[in-house]
Amino acid sequence: MNISKICCIGAGYVGGPTMAVIAQKCPQIQVKVVDINQARIDAWNSEDLSALPVYEPGLDAIVGEARGRNLFFSSEVDLAIEEADMVFISVNTPTKTYGEGKGQAADLKWIEKCARQIASASKSNKIVVEKSTLPVRTAEAVKDILDNTGNGYKFQILSNPEFLAEGTAVEDLLDPDRVLIGGDTSTEEGLEAIQALVDVYAHWVPSERILSTNVWSSELSKLTANAFLAQRVSSINSLSELCESTEADIYEVSRAIGKDSRIGPKFLQPSVGFGGSCFQKDILNLVYICRSYGLFEVADYWEQVIKINDHQKGRFAKKIIKSLYNTVSGKKITFLGWAFKKDTNDTRESAAIYVADLLLNEGANIYVYDPKVSEDQMYNDIDYLNTRTKVENRRLLQSEFDPYAACKGAHAIAVLTEWDEFRELDWQKIYDQMQKPCQIFDGRNLLDKQKLEKIGFRVYAIGKSS
Length: 466
Ligand code: NAD
Ligand code: UDX
Known about the structure:
It is built from 18 helices and 14 strands. By secondary structure, the protein is an alpha/beta fold. It has a 6-stranded parallel beta sheet, sandwiched between helices. The longest helix has about 30 residues, at about 215-245.
């Protein structure tokens, strides 16, 4: 089956970059990305490529090349579904905030809405592709809705989870470790649908990196790949605390562990805690699924990854408070970074939000400098926790456009995101303008500790005894 028109529902961090790369690599396929959020669509269509709603290195050039040629962003969802041979569902699947499974299960209301809309807008047979990360066996529900609420057309459901990481989305999409396609391997139509999607990726991905499986393995592999990655970060972070008590150095330990070819060096970078829209949500979802199958020990095992992460964020905040003589009330504390990692404007579940919340509870005045995150976004993030009033949040937390202004007069600086530019700051100038003793809490172990200590700073780095 030859695919000539693709529709993607959801123009977010996954839908936007993924479809931009498909469009760039497959100029003969028309790709329409649709969203109910008109402001987001307008931003994707913005003439100024620096105003795209998702910041990713290299994305502006790809959108610039394909947009208007075979890549389109629109809010006309029904029309795009009707025209397409293949419809990707790439909507958000956050943790439920209400009802059964609150705080753990994935909220699938947007997925169900998409399935119903695809069924009602379709005027021909279609392949429906789950791109969102979903609990294992969601395809069963999607198929049930499509088969029972549609206009008699046939649907094949594929699972094609996305493995890109933010900040490196474009390179991950252009050169993926693997592309995973789950489908109905027991029928001719299922195999044809799988092949149709394999053919799309085969335009640029070598065939040995395109894996096909049954739908359930594909759905489950995505959740568990994220759980494995997060587990590595929690493992190294748990050891960082032990290093601080024993004079072992977390970098020396991490290097020694990672040199074992069976373990490997990646994802052993100690930090203030992992953030992002995926790790916590997907592990919580995995925990919920395990409990719902009565697998309580398995659920407890994975839940511990989250507990260590919460502990890591909490102990970082406590370290700041303790080092500032157990009181931060009325003191200026500067945050360098608010995004959950460098090279993205995404702040979902960023450790910075939780560390800020704990310090604000103690009455600290926080000034934040982040090169890509707006003040509005910071307020949305902190208000969302509902810990104090919006007025109080605006009184205690502000953003600054200039890192030197953010640091001027501060009692302490905390590095929350590993933006490269923080290394290049004039640290002598910052020292001269700060309250003494000057303290830096490096939640990313980004800065040159020795150099800073030579200037006169007291430096706390994760996993290093000072
Ligand atoms: P996002 O919130 O950035 O984007 C989702 C978009 O879907 C939003 O713009 C929203 O308006 C739109 N939407 C919701 N319901 C809709 C509907 N009925 N019709 C049209 N548009 C609708 O989310 P994201 O980060 O792109 O994540 C999407 C999915 O991909 C999630 O399941 C996530 O777990 C998964 N995922 C995310 C990443 C990542 O790094 N962000 C990586 C891999 C997988
Ligand atoms: C993750 C997965 O990596 C990706 O494959 C999946 O598709 C989506 O979820 P993402 O959340 O975008 O990607 O970024 P990632 O690079 O995994 O980082 C997640 C968090 O872990 C960040 O806060 C990062 O700073 C932190 N991290 C990562 C560490 O603290 N130490 C590490 O060694 C690696």
